[in-house]
Amino acid sequence: xxxxxxxISVALILTQLLSIAYIRELFSSVTSPQQVLSxxxxxxxxxFILPIIFIIAINLYLFLFKFKVSLxxxxxxxxxxxxxxxVIILSILSPYIYIWAIFIVFxxxxxxxxxxxxxxxxxxxxxxxxxxxxxxxxxxxxxNTLFITIALLSLLDYYFVLKNKKIVKIAxxxxxxxxxxxxxxxxxxxxxxxxxxxxxxxxxxxxxxFIKGGFAEAMSIGFFAxxxxxxxxxxxxxxxxxxxxxxxxxxxxxxxxIVSWILI
Length: 264
Known about the structure:
The structure is a single chain. It contains 11 helices and 2 strands; from the N terminus they run H-H-H-H-H-H-H-H-E-E-H-H-H. It has helices spanning 2-28, 49-64, 68-93, 97-107, 109-112, 118-140, 143-163, 166-176, 196-213, 215-236, 246-263, and strands at residues 182-186, 191-195. The model has no long low-confidence stretch (mean pLDDT 82). It is mostly helical and 264 residues long.
């Protein structure tokens, strides 16, 4: 169990680092960061936008997933967006994008096939997509606004996972249709997963911290978020039971921010 938890925590940190790499590359391509930052980024009122969208999306997904054609279309759309994200990340990590393109062409089909390599491909896609989505959040919301947003989303995550279990139902539908739900590690019999929302919002906080205070503050938030998640799952995890991961990520991130504000 602890081995799986370790891999999940490392995957979360890698996603955060990829998100920072994307922000750095984006800032280096413009004369001023203000060119890519949202004009309304510092508005605290924006903190309520994502929780409202979250509630609407949960109910919309449950409705659409009643139709098999919706699941098939969503899977194709998701696959296309994941590949696009992967190409962007690889172009940042290496200037020799044509070499990576060959690798992508080789590895991509495994996402659609039932092989042991499919999960590796899905995890790579998940980290790439989540890092770019998280960085995009940081461009639209500043660090303080994101903290308020994720505090509200943590409450919703707790409710929709443990109380009315709508998120669990959506995850089950996606799993049945072989749509990746995020990062998953382990074997078929013993697997542990971390959803896209958890990856994206953690990467968003770290990217926003990087924009505000630099790499040290970003990594303080990222490290304590991952540590908090590890300790939380290690203590509360039970076989076959879904747990909300955003609350411990938020608490760890907040602690990391306080540490960085005191020491840095």
